[in-house]
Design goal:
This protein is of the alpha+beta class. It is built from 10 helices and 19 strands. The strands form 5 sheets. Strands 1-18-19-2-3-5-4 form a 7-stranded mixed sheet. 40% of the residues are buried. It comes from Pichia sorbitophila (strain ATCC MYA-4447 / BCRC 22081 / CBS 7064 / NBRC 10061 / NRRL Y-12695) (Hybrid yeast).
C-alpha cells in the first residue's frame, strides 16, 4: 500500500474547496440505469425471517477524494475518477439503493460530512454520528476539515441512539498512561497514529433490544501489523467498557470497519478466536510493549478479546461463485480488508450481498476500482443479522 501523504486537494484553499463542495451532487453523467447489485448476488443463508427479528448493516470505505494517489489510479480512466461529477453522485446513489438500518462509513471527509451527509442522508429518516481523525503531522497548512473520519448512520424509524463514544487510540493511551507500559515502541509506533473509532448504543424500537455498534479504520501500513492488533484490542476493550453492566452478560454487538487486515492476519485471528499469543507472532518479535496494556497483564504473551465474535462473510467462500471474494480491488492490490463482525450467541447472519461476479471484474476493460460501476476502490459489505 502507498503512503497516504500523497494528497490531491480540489481547489487551492479552503474557500475555493467549500465553493466546490456546494456544487457537488449535480453531476448528470452517472448511468441512469445504475444498479448497485447488478454484478453482485444476494446470498440467503437461512429461511426468511420476520422483519422485526432482523437488522440490516452496511460497512463501506468511500475512498476519500484526497487519497486518489497517482501511483494507484494514474492509469485509470479519469472520467470515472472525477469527484464532483461522477464519484460523489455515484457513491450517494449506491448508498441510497443499499440503505440499511445501520451504515458504517470509513474515509468520510469531514467537510463533506458537515455540509452534505450529516443532513438527512440518505433520507430524512436517518440520523448520524461522526468522528474525525486528528490532524496528522504531515498535514501542514491544509484545512483540518479535509481530514477524513468514520461515521455511523442509523435508521430512526427502527433504532434510537441512546449513547455514543468517540475514541482516538493514540490520545486514549496518553490520557490513561497509568494503564500502559509506556515503552518507546508504544510511543513511536502506536501513540503517534491518528486512528479513531466510533461506538453507539442503540435501542431497537421494534424488539426493545439493545445493540452496540462500532466503526473504525485501522492504520494502513503492513509494516505495522502489531499496531493494528493493539488498536483492535483497545477497540474491543472500549466496547466492553462502554456497555452497561447488565448488557455485558449477554451482549448484542456489531463490529464494523476497514481493518486493513485479511483473514490470514493476526488481527483476524484475535477477532475470530478471542485470543492471540504475542510471543508466537513474528510481528511482535522486534517490538516491546511491556507487561501492561490497558490494565491487562500481557507479560505471559497472551492477548485476549472480551467477546465471542463471528465474521459475517465467513460462509461466502464456500459458495463456488464467491471463491474470488475481495473487498478492495485496484490495479496493484486486491484483498479482503473490510469486515463486519457480530456476537455469535445473540446474532446470526440471515442474508449477505455477495462478491463481485468474476465474469465482470475479469473483463479486459475492468482494471480495478473505482470505475463506471464502482465509485470506490472498496465495495460495500451488506448483511442482514437476525436475533437468536
Amino acid at each position: 500500500m502507498f503512503r497516504r501523504e500523497y494528497l490531491i486537494v480540489h481547489g487551492g484553499n479552503a474557500s475555493r474547496h467549500m465553493l466546490q463542495i456546494r456544487r457537488l451532487g449535480h453531476g448528470k453523467r452517472i448511468p441512469s440505469d445504475y444498479d448497485a447489485t447488478r454484478y453482485r448476488k444476494w446470498i440467503r443463508l437461512d429461511n426468511e425471517t420476520e422483519p422485526e427479528h432482523k437488522v440490516s448493516v452496511m460497512s463501506y470505505n468511500m475512498l476519500c477524494q484526497h487519497y486518489m494517489w497517482k501511483q494507484v489510479y494514474g492509469t485509470k480512466r479519469q472520467y470515472y475518477l472525477d469527484w464532483p461529477t461522477y464519484r460523489f453522485p455515484l457513491l450517494n446513489k449506491s448508498i441510497k439503493q443499499l440503505q440499511c438500518d445501520i451504515m458504517c462509513f470509513q474515509e468520510m471527509e469531514c467537510a463533506l460530512y458537515k455540509n452534505f451527509w450529516s443532513r438527512g442522508f440518505p433520507s430524512d429518516k436517518y440520523t448520524s454520528r461522526y468522528v474525525r481523525k486528528s490532524v496528522p503531522g504531515y498535514w501542514g497548512s491544509l484545512p483540518e476539515d479535509y481530514v477524513d473520519g468514520v461515521g455511523i448512520f442509523v435508521n430512526q424509524d427502527r433504532l434510537e441512539i441512546l449513547d455514543e463514544r468517540r475514541i482516538n487510540f493514540g490520545k486514549y493511551i496518553t490520557e490513561h498512561a497509568e494503564r500502559f507500559s509506556i515503552t518507546p515502541d508504544l510511543r513511536e509506533r502506536m501513540v503517534v497514529r491518528n486512528t479513531v473509532a466510533l461506538l453507539l448504543k442503540l435501542r431497537d424500537k421494534t424488539t426493545n433490544k439493545t445493540i452496540y455498534v462500532t466503526n473504525t479504520h485501522l492504520y494502513w501500513s503492513p509494516r505495522f501489523n502489531d499496531v493494528k492488533v493493539l488498536q483492535t484490542k483497545l477497540l474491543l476493550d472500549s466496547l466492553r467498557d462502554f456497555m452497561a453492566p447488565e448488557d455485558r452478560k449477554d451482549p448484542c454487538a456489531i463490529v464494523c470497519g476497514d481493518f486493513n487486515c485479511n483473514p490470514n492476519s493476526i488481527v483476524f485471528q484475535l477477532l475470530k478466536t478471542g485470543a492471540l499469543r504475542l510471543d508466537a507472532c513474528k510481528e511482535f518479535e522486534s517490538c516491546s510493549y511491556g507487561p501492561r496494556f490497558n490494565n491487562e497483564n500481557i507479560s505471559g504473551g497472551l492477548l485476549t478479546s472480551p467477546f465471542q465474535l463471528s465474521w459475517a462473510y465467513e460462509k461466502i467462500k464456500t459458495a463456488p461463485a464467491d471463491k474470488f471474494f475481495f473487498t478492495t480491488y485496484t490495479r496493484n492490490f486486491t484483498d479482503i480488508l473490510d469486515h463486519i463482525w457480530y456476537t455469535n450467541h445473540t446474532l446470526a447472519v440471515s442474508k449477505l450481498l455477495g462478491s463481485v461476479e468474476h465474469a465482470y471484474y475479469d473483463r479486459e476493460d475492468v482494471k480495478g476500482f473505482p470505475n463506471r460501476e464502482f465509485p470506490s476502490d472498496h465495495i460495500p459489505l451488506v448483511t442482514e443479522l437476525k436475533y437468536k
